[in-house]
């Protein structure tokens, strides 16, 4: 026979110049005078019951753990198998030549809430909550709620705040927050409906008004992002300052007056319907779909999760955290500009009072949808469900002649319950 090549992980040459592992010639290396294998040695029978990577008759050095385990099993990966693969069914030799088998550990139980801790479970729970809310609406408001016209009213109202909430999902997932979305929306609507802007729209088309709103929103988002990322200002404080400044600038530009849109083509384009569904709803669907793709199917989305989960680890991994943070706030500003265009189409006006408390509605919808306020986890589908739940809740309250104060109290309670539930699910997931 030709020269035998030693396998990785075994002694290539014994003390007598021969390999201790031979298939054709029985080996007596390491045997005691009485014929029993010495401590640390493995007989053919014991080795045959061992892991697939060990050959019969191979002598194993003593275990550094002092428990009779082969050194290879104590040192981690061997023969291309990870150490975890050796835990379940590896038979190890003892000093008496007997073998012991380690059984795989039993899987841990995640508890009753394990089903709802995943993304699918959360979405199912939100869907059930929406259905129950619709049942309550039918029971309390009767046929007034269960009509096609009321359904379109809910969808129109959800479209505007829904676009803002999609942008808010990115910022919160990235570990930030923005309290200025309502004020940015108001400023964009005022700037896009000034007499000068509308005159330019008459000359060059409605795209000029749309571009103005988007640029104003993006500029405000850029300021927020720079203050947070490079100015090292806490997002709560930076966006709170933008809330006051943007709302004040909107009042200065409009002189606290409501500006009427006189460009008929603008209302024709954004105030119409397509296949019986308002254009505003189609815009919301398009923004939500693009947001889902951007968050779940692109490098930008993966970096957003990484920055929100651990900014320092993301920086060490090569992600430009500051630049990415600025991009997130600019993205939210663009969403506010789109929402401003939609609200202008709904009301045919631009005013500094647009978007009041929109930051509360957006944050509530995002949190209810399952996005963690601490960052690192976000879901566009959950945000859409959250928007629909809150819009339907407002509609039910309105049909039952409940005040806006009662609606605000209900929103606050729902936010608290949602955050407490998130913390409990996170704690159970960590413990399991």
TrEMBL record:
The chain crosses the membrane at residues 124-142, 154-172, 179-198, 204-226, 233-250, 270-295, 326-344. CDD domains: TM_PBP1_transp_AraH_like (cd06579). It is found in: Cell membrane. It comes from the Bacteria. It is a multi-pass membrane protein. The keyword Repeat does not apply. Keywords: Cell membrane, Membrane, Transmembrane, Transmembrane helix. GO terms for molecular function: transmembrane transporter activity. This is Inner-membrane translocator. GO terms for cellular component: plasma membrane. Residues 1-109 are annotated as: Disordered. Residues 24-77, 88-109 have a biased composition (Low complexity). Its main location: membrane.
């Amino acid at each position: 026979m030709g020269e035998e090549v030693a396998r990785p992980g075994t002694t290539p040459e014994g003390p007598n110049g021969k390999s201790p592992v031979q298939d054709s010639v029985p080996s007596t290396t390491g045997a005691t005078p009485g014929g029993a294998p010495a401590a640390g040695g493995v007989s053919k029978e014991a080795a045959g019951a061992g892991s697939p990577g060990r050959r019969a008759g191979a002598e194993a050095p003593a275990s550094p753990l002092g428990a009779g385990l082969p050194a290879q099993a104590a040192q981690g990966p061997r023969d291309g198998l990870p150490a975890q693969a050796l835990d379940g069914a590896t038979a190890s030799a003892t000093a008496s030549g007997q073998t012991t088998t380690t059984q795989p550990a039993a899987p841990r139980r995640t508890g009753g809430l394990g089903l709802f801790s995943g993304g699918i479970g959360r979405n199912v729970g939100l869907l059930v909550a929406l259905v129950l809310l619709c049942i309550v609406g039918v029971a309390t408001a009767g046929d007034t709620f269960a009509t096609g016209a009321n359904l379109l009213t809910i969808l129109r109202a959800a479209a505007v705040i829904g676009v803002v909430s999609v942008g808010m999902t990115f910022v919160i997932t990235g570990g930030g927050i923005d309290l200025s979305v309502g004020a940015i929306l108001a400023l964009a609507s005022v700037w896009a409906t000034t007499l000068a802007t509308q005159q330019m729209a008459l000359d060059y088309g409605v795209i000029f008004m749309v571009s103005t709103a988007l640029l104003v929103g993006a500029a405000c988002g850029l300021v927020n992002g720079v203050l947070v990322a490079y100015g090292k200002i806490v997002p709560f404080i930076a966006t709170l300052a933008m809330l006051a400044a943007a709302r004040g600038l909107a009042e200065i530009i409009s002189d606290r007056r409501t500006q009427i849109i006189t460009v008929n083509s603008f209302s024709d384009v954004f105030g119409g319907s397509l296949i019986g569904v308002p254009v505003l709803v189609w815009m919301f669907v398009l923004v939500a779909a693009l947001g889902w793709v951007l968050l779940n199917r692109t490098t930008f989305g993966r970096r957003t999760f990484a920055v929100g989960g651990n900014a320092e680890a993301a920086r060490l991994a090569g992600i430009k955290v500051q630049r990415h943070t600025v991009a997130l706030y600019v993205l939210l500003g663009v969403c506010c500009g789109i929402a401003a265009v939609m609200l202008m189409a709904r009301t045919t006006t631009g005013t500094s009072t647009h978007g009041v408390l929109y930051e509360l509605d957006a944050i509530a919808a995002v949190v209810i949808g399952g996005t963690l306020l601490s960052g690192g986890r976000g879901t566009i589908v959950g945000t859409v469900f959250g928007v629909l739940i809150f819009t339907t809740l407002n509609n039910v309250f309105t049909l039952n002649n409940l005040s806006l104060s009662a609606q605000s109290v209900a929103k606050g309670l729902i936010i608290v319950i949602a955050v407490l539930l998130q913390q409990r699910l996170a704690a159970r997931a960590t413990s399991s």
